[in-house]
Design brief:
With 259 residues, this protein is α/β, with parallel strands linked by helices. The chain is 41% helix and 19% strand.
Length: 259
């Protein structure tokens, strides 16, 4: 457990295992520890680094803000984090918002990112995402029944006012992004040079198959797996299968990309 200063941001991170470094980036409002099951599956073969991304968990600044380009901005912060840890070459994994940031990292640092697994991802958003974005906008004061536990966790972790600012700010930025055409990294996805594995649930409401297929088509070395009867959280719904898939895929590509 450690912290490193990156500009105006302090990034908390944990490390498990030994070997080639794998950096795992968590989803919106979560922390590195929410990917512990995957980290535990990888630590026998890799040095697994699980940061709390800017403004989440034990990382600052809090409360964080959400400009319309926050995915790219967070990627630049995480690129500086890799530099602060002295990591010239890494393998990346990312879920949801962490996956969008990981795609941007692969665009910004093509020589540094050796391979990438991204799940619950799209590279772009369209109007299909708006109903769920609306639910997140009012999560603290009017949570749908299936998200009451999430609301309660956020209020315990950050306080009600900060949790409200976080969820409403994220939703406002995403609505703005969609109104501008919805592109997160899709227009530049062709610049990604490393092998990429995309894994999405076929029932993901925010990232429907048509959108992730368009992303896969742009990335030169992309593989796409759509998991039937699963929504956004593939790693939870199919935990054992998913962890084995990621471990085997990363091992194969770690060997092939090692200098």
């Amino acid at each position: 457990m450690a912290k490193v200063r990156v500009g105006e941001t302090t990034i908390y991170y944990e490390v498990q295992g030994r070997g080639d470094p794998v950096v795992l980036l968590h989803g919106f409002t979560e922390t590195g520890r929410t990917l512990r099951a995957l980290s535990d599956a990888l630590k026998r073969d890799f040095r697994v680094i699980t940061p709390d991304m800017p403004g989440y968990g034990r990382s600052g600044p809090q409360p964080r803000d959400y400009p319309v380009d926050f995915y790219e901005r967070d990627a630049r912060v995480m690129a500086a984090f890799l530099d602060a840890l002295g990591l010239p070459a890494v393998h990346l994994g990312g879920f949801s918002d962490g996956a969008e940031v990981a795609l941007w990292l692969a665009i910004l640092r093509p020589a540094q990112v050796r391979s990438l697994v991204a799940w619950g991802v799209a590279g772009a958003l369209n109007a299909d995402a708006l109903p769920e974005v609306g639910e997140i906008a009012t999560l603290i004061d009017a949570p749908p029944p299936h998200w009451v536990d999430w609301r309660d966790r956020l209020c315990r972790s950050y306080g009600e006012a900060a949790a409200r600012r976080m969820t409403a700010g994220w939703a406002a930025a995403v609505r703005d992004l969609i109104s501008r055409g919805g592109d997160i990294s899709l227009a530049r996805a062709g610049e990604i040079r490393c092998p990429v594995l995309l894994v999405n649930g076929a029932e993901d409401r925010v990232n429907p198959p048509v959108v992730v297929r368009a992303l896969a088509a742009r990335i030169p070395q992309a593989e796409l797996i759509l998991v039937p009867d699963v929504g956004h959280r593939v790693h939870d719904a199919r935990e054992a299968w998913f962890n084995g898939l990621v471990r085997d895929w990363l091992l194969r590509h770690a060997r092939s990309t090692r200098p």
